[in-house]
Write a structure and sequence with these properties.
By secondary structure, the protein is α/β, with parallel strands linked by helices. Helix content is 40%, strand content 21%. The protein starts with a helix and ends with a helix.
C-alpha cells in the first residue's frame, strides 16, 4: 500500500488577519486555537501592529498590502492549496480584491472559506471601514461556507442603517441572501440577558441559538476567539450547531479565567488557561 494511503492526512488552514504584538487578538489567538485542533496552520498577515488599537494609545502600524501580492503569487506558483481559509481583518478593499482573485486557486474545488468581516461594533463602523470595504466583504460572502459577523457587521452587510450605541437586531437568516452557505451572528442577547450566537443554515428554516452567562467588560479578541474555535471544530467535521456550542463554552471558560487574574481588559482574554479542556473536546471530535 502506498505511504499516502497508509498515513492520515493533516488539514491545512490558511489564516488571513492582522498581527498585533501585544494584546491577545487576531492572529495571536486564531493560530494557536486552530493549531490545537491538529491542523497545519499558515498565516497571511494583512497588517502588523505594535499593539491592538484599543487602550494602548497611538500604535505603530504597517499595512501589508504591498507584501500580500508577491506572497500570494509565490504560493500560487508553488501550487499550494488549503482545505480552508479563515479571513478576518483586512486593512483595505485592495486586500479583499487580492483575496477574491487568489482564493479560488488556493482553496480548489473542495476548500472552504470562513469569513469574519471585521468592520464595526456597537452600532458604529470602524474608522477604516468605508463603503468599498463593505462591498468587498459582501462579494466574498458569495464564496463563503460560513460568515461570522457581529450584529453591527451583519447590518452593514445587509445595508441596514446604523445608530451609534444601538445594536441592530440580529438577522442571521437575511445574510444568507448574500450567498454564504451558513451565517453565525455573534453578540446576540436573549431575554434573560445572556449572550451568545444565532446561526442560520441553508436549507433549514429554523435558526439555531445558544447562550451563556454575560460577563461584564469588553475584551479585544473575543470575536476572534469564538470564530477561530468554531472554524477549528468545523474543520474536524463538527456540525455547525455543535461548533457553536464548543466555541461558546470555550469563550465562557476563557472569561472565567480572565476574571481570576484581574488584568486590564486591554490585554484580552486569558484563553490559554482554557486550551487544555478545548484540546480534549477536539480529540473527542476525532474519535470515530
Amino acid at each position: 500500500m502506498p505511504l499516502s494511503e497508509q498515513s492520515p492526512r493533516q488539514s491545512r488552514i490558511l489564516v488571513v488577519t492582522d498581527l498585533s504584538g501585544v494584546g491577545r487578538c487576531a492572529a495571536m489567538v486564531a493560530v494557536p486555537v486552530i493549531s490545537l485542533s491538529g491542523s497545519n496552520c499558515a498565516l497571511l498577515p494583512t497588517a502588523v501592529f505594535s499593539t491592538h488599537t484599543g487602550g494602548f494609545g497611538p500604535v505603530h502600524r504597517r499595512d501589508m498590502t504591498p507584501d500580500m501580492a508577491p506572497i500570494l503569487a509565490h504560493w500560487l506558483d508553488l501550487g499550494l492549496q488549503f482545505d480552508a481559509a479563515y479571513v478576518s481583518y483586512v486593512a483595505n478593499e485592495r486586500q479583499l480584491a487580492l483575496l477574491e482573485d487568489a482564493l479560488p486557486a488556493l482553496l480548489g474545488a473542495q476548500g472552504k472559506l470562513y469569513l469574519d468581516p471585521v468592520m464595526g461594533d456597537h452600532g458604529r463602523p470602524y474608522a477604516f471601514c468605508g463603503e468599498a470595504l463593505v462591498e468587498g466583504f459582501s462579494r466574498l460572502c458569495r464564496m463563503a461556507d460560513t460568515v461570522f459577523p457581529n450584529r453591527t457587521e451583519a447590518a452593514m452587510l445587509m445595508g441596514v442603517p446604523l445608530r451609534e450605541g444601538e445594536e441592530p437586531p440580529p438577522a442571521a437568516g437575511d445574510i444568507l441572501s448574500l450567498g454564504a452557505r451558513n451565517a453565525v451572528v455573534t453578540g446576540v442577547r436573549d431575554e434573560a440577558g445572556r449572550i451568545g450566537v444565532m446561526a442560520a443554515m441553508s436549507g433549514r428554516r429554523d435558526v439555531y441559538r445558544t447562550f451563556r452567562k454575560y460577563h461584564e467588560g469588553s475584551y479585544p479578541g473575543t470575536g476572534d476567539l469564538l470564530a477561530s474555535c468554531a472554524v477549528a471544530a468545523l474543520t474536524l467535521d463538527a456540525a455547525l450547531p455543535r461548533a457553536c456550542e464548543i466555541a461558546c463554552d470555550f469563550l465562557d471558560e476563557s472569561l472565567e479565567h480572565t476574571a481570576r487574574y484581574r488584568t486590564p481588559s486591554r490585554f484580552g482574554l486569558a484563553f490559554e488557561q482554557a486550551l487544555p479542556r478545548l484540546s480534549c473536546v477536539f480529540e473527542a471530535l476525532k474519535s470515530p
